[in-house]
Amino acid sequence: MKKLLGIKDLYQAHSGKVSDKWTIYLNEYEDKLKQYQKLPIKFFEIGVLNGGSLEIFSKYFSDAELILGCDIDPKCKELRFNQPNIKLVVGDVNNEVIKKEIIKYSKFDIILDDGSHNSDDIIKTFFNYFNHLNNGGLYIIEDLHCSYWREYKGGLFFPISSINFLKKLVDIINYEHWGVEKKKEWLLRGFTENYKINFESLQLDQIYSIEFINSLCFIRKKSSEENKLGKSVVVGEDERVAPDRKKFNNSNLKVLNQNRNPWSNRESLPEEELELLKKKMFLKNKLNE
Fold first, then answer.
1. Average pLDDT over residues 173-193
2. How far is CA 33 from CA 7, 39, 54, 139, 283, in A?
3. Could you tell me the CATH number of the domain that includes residue 123?
4. Confidence category of residue 2, pLDDT binned at 50, 70, 90
5. What's the number of domains the chain is made of?
6. 178 shares a domain with 282
7. Cα dihedral 51, 54, 56, 61 in deg (nearest 10)
8. pTM over 0.70
9. Contact present, 134 and 109 (Cβ < 8 Å)
10. In-domain check, residue 137
C-alpha cells in the first residue's frame, strides 16, 4: 500500500508553481487536514497568487472531487493546471456575480481564506461562505497577524478587526449560557453597522468550535443539535464527598438569570460606551475652553 505523503513533505518536494506558507501553518495542517486526505472532498482556497498551493493541495487530497481557487488578480487568468480537479475563478470573492460562480459547485468541506488579509474582507468572506460549508467541515483563516496592523484595517484594540470578530464568535458558541434576552446578532452589531452585514442569515448556531494558533484560526461546523451542551452524565456508585450528585443524571443545566448582572445585561456594547464617553469628554473640554 502506497504511503500517503504529508503536507510538509509535499511542500518540500514541490517544484511547480510557487506557493508560500509559514512553518506553523504546515505543522498544524499535518494534524488538522489528515482526516479529509482520502475523502472525495470539495476544497476552496481564497487567494492563490502563483497557484502553487492548488497544485500541492491537489496532490495531498488525491481523491478530492474539486480543488477550487479564487483570486482577485487578473493575472491569475494566465494560470494553467494539469490536474483535472483544479478549477479557478478570477475576481473578488465577495462580489455577488463571483459568489454565484463559486457556490454553483455546491457546498465545500474545507474553505481556506488566504485572501487580502484586510479585516473587512475576512469578515465579509466568512459571512458569505460559512453557510456554504458542509456539516463537519473546516473553515480556515490564515495570516491573522495582519488584523493587528492599521495597514490591513486592524489594530490591537480596534473593536471591528477580524480577530475581534472571531473573539465574539467564542461567546456565540456559548450563547445558551448568557442568561439574558439578547439575540446572537446583537453581539455583532458593531460589524453590522460598519460593514453593512445582516448576520441574521448566517448559521451562527452551527459554529461548533474555534481554535486559535499564531496567525491562524480553525472554525469547525456542525449541526445546531450537536452544538448544545446536552444532558448531564453522572456515573459511579461511591459519592461520599458530594452525596447529591447522582440525582442530576440526565438533567439539563439550569441557566442562571443574568438580567441583574451589569456585566451581561446592558443596552450598549463596551466599545460603544467607550465612544460615547469619549464624545462626552470632548464636549466637556470644549465647553471649558
1. 96
2. 9, 11, 15, 11, 54
3. 3.40.50.150
4. low
5. 2
6. no
7. 180
8. yes
9. yes
10. yes
End-to-end Cα separation, the chain, in angstroms = 82
- Report the pLDDT value the prediction gives residue 4, as an integer from 0 to 100: 82
Residue 289 has pLDDT above 90, yes or no: no
Closest CA to 65 of 166, 168, 134: 134
For 217, phi and psi rounded to 5 degrees?
-140, 130
pLDDT at 250 over 60: yes
Order across the sheet with 216-221: list the strands. 86-90, 66-71, 42-46, 108-113, 133-141, 216-221, 207-213
The grid coordinates of residue 72 equal 482577485
Helix, strand, coil percentages (3-state) for the chain, rounded to 5, are: 40, 15, 45
- Residue 129 · residue 137 · CB < 8 Å: no
Same domain, 63 and 150: yes
